[in-house]
Amino acid sequence: MNGRIGIGSVLGLAALAAALAQPAGEERAQPVTRGETLKLAEYHAAPHDLQMKSLLEGARAQRQPDGRIVVTQARCQTFTPTGQGELVVEAPECVYDPKQRTIRSAGALHVRTADDRLAIAGEGFTWQQTNSTLLVSNRVHTRLRPELFRPPGGAPLPSAPAPAGPTLDIFSDRLEYAQTPGQGIYEGNVRVSGTNLNATAGRLILRSPMSEHRLQSLTAEEHVVVDYEQIHATGDWAFYSADTDRVQLKGRPTWRIEQREGSGDELIFERSNRVFQANGHARLQMPRASLGGASFLSRAEAAPTDGPAATRQFLEVRCDRYELRTNVAVFYGPVRVNDWNGGQAQGQMTCGLLTLTLGATNELQRLVAERDVVIVQADRRFTAARAEYTAGDRLLKLTGQPAWQDGPRAGRGDWMQVDLAREELSVRGNAVMKLPAGEVGQAVLTGAEAARPVETRPGADGSAEIHSREYRFTEQTALFEGGVRIEHPQMQWTCDRLSLTSPPELGPGGRRMVAEPAVVFDLLSEPGNPVHGTGERAVYTRRLAAARTNDFIELHGTPAMMASSNLVIRNELIVLDISGRKLATPGKFNFRGPLPAAMTNHFRPEKRR
Length: 609
What we know:
Blueprint: H1 14-21, E1 29-34, E2 37-43, E3 52-58, E4 60-63, E5 69-79, E6 85-97, E7 102-113, E8 118-128, E9 133-144, E10 168-172, E11 174-178, E12 183-194, E13 197-207, E14 217-228, E15 231-241, E16 246-250, E17 254-257, E18 260-263, E19 266-270, E20 275-287, H2 308-311, E21 313-324, E22 328-341, E23 344-358, E24 364-377, E25 380-390, E26 395-399, E27 403-406, E28 409-412, E29 415-419, E30 424-436, H3 437-440, E31 463-473, E32 477-487, E33 491-501, E34 511-516, E35 519-526, E36 529-535, E37 537-545, E38 548-564, E39 567-577, E40 582-584, E41 590-592, H4 597-602, E42 604-605
């Protein structure tokens, strides 16, 4: 609610009550009558005893047989000890009962301050002098100007509304005002209207002590609905404090700003610094379009930015509490973010602290997640101590022992980046990738030889690990650089640079691995017959065709060398057909060692003319 234009020192009808309640002839009351007219003046106590305190005038005053006095066209003015006007109270007709010490009227009532900063109108009222309480029973309308509202000290609040549209109107069925605590209660169809503000409630309570002449607080109850500037909020209870310039909502409160909405156990809006908070079971929903058309949690194509489909594509944040400022939103954990598309969750993130930086039009510019970050995108998963996403270039950076998993693949490193525009993952520092052994190459015998026992490393699980200084890969390619080492169930490799590709000409599932330079590898194919090779460049090709797997290694060097337990061969090019168990050495070559039958069966050098 707009507390600046709220309700201040409302009625001040005590002056009217005192004037009407003062019997004729009482000390300091000086009645003056002329015909049927009435004037009743009351003066301040010493030392201001020459200054009029109030003046009651009536076109007619008539005492009834029961002792009551009927006053028509009553007008009462009150003054300060220095002679300044305070209030002007008018009633077409009222009845004063000196026994009950009440003033009643079934007609209209008008109250205003001398400077017109406050005005109250209604129909049917009762003033109870004994407890200084005013009851207005019908069609209550209070109008206030912002000059009435100021913090302790008297200076106007910096964020007070501009002169344009300076009033606040309060409408209700009934009003009860108690002067001693300075409290007014509006009940029945309460409606508040002001500049950039509209609110409704079943009950509105204001506190404005007469001695302070300023608003202290406003409390709205029963089905509270507030529209302030662009904010639409609902709840069962709302409280505004003029001292803090803060609005608080409870009772299943909700809020909405354009396409963003949220809820919590408690909502707080600090008007002066424009801070919005949700505490307890806090929830916020924003359109995916706020991320620039695509969500970092989803691997799908960019979402539509308009139309019915766009309204079903949004991000939902649930957390313990959050705080929204002009261009920053902070969510405190545990935090859970869901990316929804047509009722289906496309991705999810959990963390302990989440910070969003927004642009001038509330589009996301930067996201920072901290403390046990977990991001899930379909079958892809990332973990880290910190994740940073920038919407402009669609880059997601992860630090603090980051790790990833994508189906059967997984990896880790010191630093990680996901280029969502290019669907590329980069890992640096102690980089490791784990993937199915078949994606690197399978040095396993085929056909009848496959029945022979195969030597593998202890603890091998059918996967391979590639260690390097850094790597980057997409769905079809991978590049490893710096101290590359392959740990495979049937082979081990070292080099400085390694690339993995899936060329279309190799067929579905086909792979090509290129290692260079300073290549060293060991194939653990058959017990007792390991193959060791060195060279400057090695190309491992795995082709799938006609239900047959063909594995080749092309080893280049000056010269390249390949050796088994009883054979050493050197050449600029050595071709090893693992599937067909053949060894080819085009051009001049040399080898050393016998060719026993077992070895001949294992490697058959091609004939040369």
